[in-house]
Each structure stands twice: as structure tokens, then as C-alpha cells.
Amino acid sequence: MTRRPVTIAYIGGGSLNWATKLMADLAHDTALAAHVRLYDIDHAAAERNARIGTRFAEVSKGTPAVYRAVPSLQDALTGADVVVVSILPGEFDDMAHDVDIPARYGIKQAVGDTVGPGGFVRALRSIPMMLPIAEAIRDHAPKAWVCNLTNPMSVLTAAMYHAFPGIRLWGECHEVTKLRHQVAWIANQQAGAQHHSHRDVQVNVLGINHFTFVDAIGLDGRDMLPAYRAFADQHGNSGWSPRAVDPGDEHDLYFMDRSRVKFDMYRRFGIPAAAGDRHLAEFVPQAEYLDTAQDWDFALTPVSYRIRDRTEKRARASALAAGEGAPHADRSDEALVDQIKGLMGLGDFVSNVNLPNRGQMDGLPMGTIVETNALFSSLGVTPLVAGRLPDALHDIVRDHAARQTDLLAAVVENRWDDLFGLFRTDPLVAPLPTDTARLMFHEMVQATSHHLPRDLLREAS
Question: Which chain regions cross the lipid bilayer (predicted)?
């Protein structure tokens, strides 16, 4: 059987998370013959991942992928069919400031990477990092398909379109998968057997990244929305997870989704929420969920845990690169390889992605980055009409989407005075007195100033 060759440029190729998921998925796949170029400002990390990729290639079910660490962005991009952008905007110390400084002012954040004060300042330092990447794609791989995995997803996807309007880019997020897993579990319980996986579940997605909802659910030709409604009503007060949460496991503690927030939003708005509780809670005023996170069965993830987890992942990665342990060609929950196959003409594929609004979501300005379904085919990435959210949710989404759009414009135009005004209107910041909010904003900016462009800082002074 002839395999479809594809050259993938991975920007952030020293990744300890998404890169190895891609390696496992390519090892599981039998349709592609991939050449993966790994580029990272930490070249040693990219070289380590190239060695890990070679180990995954050894257990491939199809044509083994070839991995190579390259020294420059141009080397990665030239001739690439697909570009994956997966970078960390700054260091975990920066993310700690994003979370810890607002906490001293009484603002709680479960994640702090999308909206709220943490997401806002993360965008300030990451937009200038993403713009030159998009410009390099314009110069060296203008026809490549580009997948952005980096948060804050909406703002950074828009930033890349701003730098290169002709970019063939989508933003990829797996949060909706959580709801699809729930629906597959419901169907399997009804059948009394494990007939279905989340890949069998179809949903119509509406929203913006990390604040997504679905108004239609299908499986095997059946309307699963009534069954999901009954499921949410049954577990609304107790929560639900596919297995028992291990109280001694930090990952379970911080990342196991009990869905109490999802179920409550369904009851409030009449439409199932798709993203995880930790993200959903940050889009609404703090008093609704974050103040009583423990009562809603979710945790505020401390950056100290992320740092410990990174240390452990580095140790495992180093061991794997050195030939220890055994890589497995196990398929992950990620959709990227299926999306690539769709674009390469190996079967159409539908999944939720972040794209500029071209009419797929009613009531939001054209060009606003929205998250809906899109069709991946040899014709490209085609957004599918999603419709409109209920009015109460539409108003929340419109407010956040407008702030994200205006934030990008203020950064690229060096309009510092507009930035605080936008920061001030976020639902988590709005309850603070103006003078207090201004102090917090300047403290956060100073903490990340080494990542901000000089022109922006000059405007601030």
C-alpha cells in the first residue's frame, strides 16, 4: 500500500507534551509517510525529541516517520506541507506571576492562560512571539497548512492571521472531547457493552476557545441530546467522572473533570457546555464558581504543580531518548493526524477548530476567532455553519471575543492606554476598584516586562 508523504514542521519541537502525542499518533497511523522537522529555541530539547521520535518510529504500524532536529525556523519551514506551532509563551515563572499576583488582589484563577488577568497578560507577551512565526511562514511556507496549539488560542490565532492574512491556519483544542467521551459512555451504558468511542459522537459546536457549547449531539443516527440532558440532570449535584478520582494523585486532583460547572451551565442556559470546568469558570464573574471551587469539585491548578510535572516529564523524556522504557503506538485523543489526512485527501474529517468567523456563528463580527466545526478535506479547512448561542451565552461570548480582538489591535498598534481599559472590563477584574486594578495591571506587566516589545514598554512609561 502506498503511503501519502507529508513533511511536518514542528515549531516548539522540544515540547514535552504535544510532540510525543503526535509521535504516538503517527506511529499508530498506517496512511502517512511523515518527515518531521523539529525546531526549538532550545535545540538540545529538539534533538532529544528527534531521538524519541526515532524510537516511536521503530514500533510504527505503518511507514515509520522520520524525525530531524533543525537549527533554524527557515530550515523547518522550507518545503513543509504542514506546520504545527506549539510554544510556551515565556517560562513557568511568568505563568506563576500571571496567577499569583492576581491572587494577592483576591482574584482566583483555575488556569490563567485564556481570559482573566492571567490570560490577558499572557497574550501581551505571546502576541509578539507569534507574529514573527507567522511572517516566517509567509516567507518560507506560504502554502503550508498551519495548526496552532498555543494558548491563548483565540488571540494568537488572530495574531497569526494579522501578520499573514493569507495563512492557512486553524487553532486546535481538545476540550470538546470531554463531552464526547461522556456521550460515548452514556451510549455504552445503554447498550450494556463497549460499542462506541468518543470518535463516534457528532456534536455541533458553538463558542470561543475554552468556552464552548453544543446544541446537537448525534451517535449512530440517534439524537443523543435527550439522553445527555437526563445524564446532566442525574449527576448535576454529585458530579461525574469516568473513574474514581485518586485523592493522592496530583494530576487527578487538578485535571480530572467532575463536570459540576458544565452541568450547572446546562441548567442555567439550556445548552450543554463542552469545555472543562476549570476553563468555563474563568469566563464568568468569580462569585459564580471560582470563589467556591471546592464546592464545585474542581481545583485551582498551582504553577508549582506544573513545574514539578515538567521535571518528571523531562526525566521520562530523557530516559526514553536514551533507549530506556518502551514507546507504544497508542492513538491519543488528539485530532491532528486525522486533520492532516483529511487535508492530504485521505478521507474527509470533521472536528471543532478555531477560525475567523466567516458566517459560521451568527451575531459575531466577521473575522472574530470562533470555535465551531470545520470540514478537513483536499479542498482545505471549510468552516461549517453552527448557528447562534442562546442570548445570555451569546452576550458573554460577544464580550470576551470583542476584548480579545481589541487586545490584539492595541498590542500591534502600541496603544498602551487602551490596554488597561480592556483589562479592566474582564469579568474577573471588573469588581476591583479602578485604582486597585491599575496597580495589579502594572505589577503584572512589570513581572513579564522582559518579554514585552520595547515600543510597548516605551508607551507604558
Answer: none
